[in-house]
Amino acid sequence: MICNKISSQKWDTKRQDKAERINSVQSIVKQKIIPTSDIVPALERLIKSGDRVVLEGNNQKQADFLARSLSKVSANSVNNLHMIMPTVSLPDHLDIFEKGIAKRLDFSFSGPQSLRISQLIEDGAIEIGDIHTYIELYSRLYMDLIPNVALIAAYSADKEGNLYTGPSTEDTPAIIEAAAFKNGIVIAQVNEIVEDTRDLKRVDIPGSWVDFVVQSDKPFYIEPLFTRDPRQIKPIHVLMGMMAIKGIYARHEVQTINHGIGFNTAAIELLLPTYGNELGLRGKICKHWALNPHPTLIPAIESGWVESVHSFGSELGMENYIAARPDIFFTGSDGSMRSNRAFCQMAGQYAVDMFIGATLQMDHEGNSSTVTRGRLSGFGGAPNMGSNPNGRRHTSKAWLDMINNQQGETISRGRKLVVQMVETFQSRNNPTFVNQLDAVKVAKDSNMPLPPVMIYGDDVTHLLTEEGIAYLYMAKSLEERKAMIAAMAGVTDIGMTADPKTVKRLRAEGKIVYPEDLGIDRNRANRSLLAAKSMAELVEWSGGLYNVPAKFRSW
Amino acid sequence: MICNKISSQKWDTKRQDKAERINSVQSIVKQKIIPTSDIVPALERLIKSGDRVVLEGNNQKQADFLARSLSKVSANSVNNLHMIMPTVSLPDHLDIFEKGIAKRLDFSFSGPQSLRISQLIEDGAIEIGDIHTYIELYSRLYMDLIPNVALIAAYSADKEGNLYTGPSTEDTPAIIEAAAFKNGIVIAQVNEIVEDTRDLKRVDIPGSWVDFVVQSDKPFYIEPLFTRDPRQIKPIHVLMGMMAIKGIYARHEVQTINHGIGFNTAAIELLLPTYGNELGLRGKICKHWALNPHPTLIPAIESGWVESVHSFGSELGMENYIAARPDIFFTGSDGSMRSNRAFCQMAGQYAVDMFIGATLQMDHEGNSSTVTRGRLSGFGGAPNMGSNPNGRRHTSKAWLDMINNQQGETISRGRKLVVQMVETFQSRNNPTFVNQLDAVKVAKDSNMPLPPVMIYGDDVTHLLTEEGIAYLYMAKSLEERKAMIAAMAGVTDIGMTADPKTVKRLRAEGKIVYPEDLGIDRNRANRSLLAAKSMAELVEWSGGLYNVPAKFRSW
């Protein structure tokens, strides 16, 4: 039965459309090169109203010149764009909406722009598609959010469009591929255009994937987002770090790991060479890392704790250190680092024993969110790494330790360790533990179908506060999980619901522990236990290779 | 406190080692080219005993010349290799172990070699690391299984090592990157070596990522693994397909999808243009696909059902059809397809509403496995796609339909639809539903810490058999789930445990349905409802573009 065949259908409309767009700028471009001063008229011809446009802007690398230029196009000729942006971090990113050039936004993380996003939603200037974890957003580029245009950033290009993305390769490959192989237009801003392919340090993206390159008016914006000054690590972080190392890392023999970016996980990194060595753990835990090149990891690397680090992106100031440590970091034939956000997120989800990070709020069931009052911040990679990959089939000591057939299933399986490490209060009057996440109200106010939860309670295997550790994976029911969370919630409202008898039982059963139970002397929990107490000491550890960014210099 | 610094440590041992290996073959190679006849001595110098070697072999594309050559190296000079192989499918893959060249194996899928793997384990000739889902295996290449050597396959290379991987790009990028950026050795077998970069159809892998290329003695092995002849689709498949379309796809408005590779899902593909049209569903369901280019999808594409298809790999015979349908498939600037197994698995996990596939065995709790008696087959991508990604944060009608706060959580969340579509018997005396999966015994016999389960019961949202559909996501407890499974298990032992009163209640509550409940006329469930009933009709639908592989030709 041959029926319903649409015989008149054209099957290469996108290819034709792409050819027309490219033709329309032939008076402006010289082969693949758009002159810097002509970028706005070029964008006005290459982008059509209603297009899906993916704009690179991740934690560190920003296609800022292209964002700025896009905000200057005429909203009369280009409007109703559907922007797909891993990170919304620059004012220009939202100017595009305010000026009526773009209408709809799908994103992963906002950060400094989170308050303004909320206001723009309220004003009706922006229509939110969804908030995603990074790798989920990249995934949709291949399914139902295939881009018409990709605007990306690289260090340098040759005249054929070959790109060097260097240490901050980040999400460029995942973004470009979706457009380049579906007849989308790929435009790369670069800091420099070189004469010949041989003048590129290396080729990260082949030229045939790139339609146009434009030299930006100034090098792309990059900031040392994950650098933590050891001076700001407090004794409470040291105490929590000691508990983490002894009560979690050592107990479960955690081999592969992703750390969050707070001062508490920075403390752990700086405790490995001191407290960790004292416990005889070197070579036994924390060997393989999915992590940006945190400067606070330098002492652990230099003391022989770290076998390998694969990175999402780079970190300003770490370039020379990384280049001098190719046994540890992923580096290219030119010696500089290669990062890859998609693959590192993939590894952070599927290949690590443990994710450890923090949150701003946690409810009684253990659900957490960084979306608080009026700030639609998104979550970046946390939902991906802070969740159990149900498809994982390889085992490890740590993963097997999590077995708990809660419903009485006859077949056991392990789990990834997901550790939430928080102080009970964010500031004096701002409890971390709340009866209801602000996210619930935000969802209602923004007409979102569900509250934006960062990590769900049943994915959290361990809760670590200054009070102690709750081994939530051992909970036999939601009720018991709630009791364990309350036991660690200090003097917050939720902490006050803890029933002393239940707490005693949980402690006796080893489901919660205090520092004393772990044999940790609170008196030792002070900054003298840190392998480096200042940026200067990190430089010393690095043998002068770490180049401290200006904002972190006190000298 | 500066302490424990290992001042004498060398940090570029891998780079040095790589340089030495490359030096050792300078008498053999001409720049990057290894002469075909010298591949064995070259491998003997480039690979060292104990190395981790990743050997490309995925569903379709096989680095078969390199596998064959590796099996010829002297086991005296090269031994104890740790092989990492996405797919173990050729006899040579296991000869390497039998000859004592390799010892340890990490893999994802075996298939025809599954019986021999089990025997080699028993004989002590092979030591199994873990069985993985594809994307999990790639992930570990960046963490704790970083390869020393990558042996991969491409269509063509130029003298600088630039590669054209073409329609079957598959997992090449994910594998090469891990070795290329960690000072591993990358060797590519190619069907041809061209003079100049401009003679390559396009560049898929930049030359600086590749250390050596060798022209294979014959083109790499490829087989049409996912081609299903419509002649073999039976009336029972048509009935099940009708139920799937009406009772699942339409009910939940499934937009984005991954199909398994059996005759039942092939039947669905061929029912969309007929039964689907009749129900007025065109443009309302199944718009975006994560799928290899199945020939049985041609009628749906030609009838305007499909907006886009992103593929893991290619399918022999589909080349011209794909090249003529760039609006649907991902194609490069040269017009040929670009597949990408890592990204397609990522999309199949995070971006689709639904996964639908089959299994060989399912137990009473809904756990399923294709590991049966003595066959350590592995699961390929099924565990990844057939599981809920807990990190997903975007919503869709289908995903939201799955909300069921089983434990009484206060915050709701959706789920991916995971549909198991099986006949109650695999063959007359071989029930699909079993009291215990064979995998449990296999695990015990092979000293595996856990049974190799393909998909866990609590990830399955729908069970579809010839009896009807069980909406498992509506189950309020493990007990209820078991009752729903029994209701669909026909006259198997598990089916016989179904209690008529419970079945009646489940039906009244809409938790299970029969074809009648869906308004499906069993009399219409025959082959005349298929849009194509033979390979010849698929060719006709394709306008002569589909080139039927020899083994499927009856003319």
UniProtKB/TrEMBL annotation, chains A, B:
It comes from the Bacteria. InterPro entries: MadA (IPR005777), NagB/RpiA_transferase-like (IPR037171). One of its GO terms (molecular function) is transferase activity. Pfam families: Mal_decarbox_Al. This is Malonate decarboxylase subunit alpha.
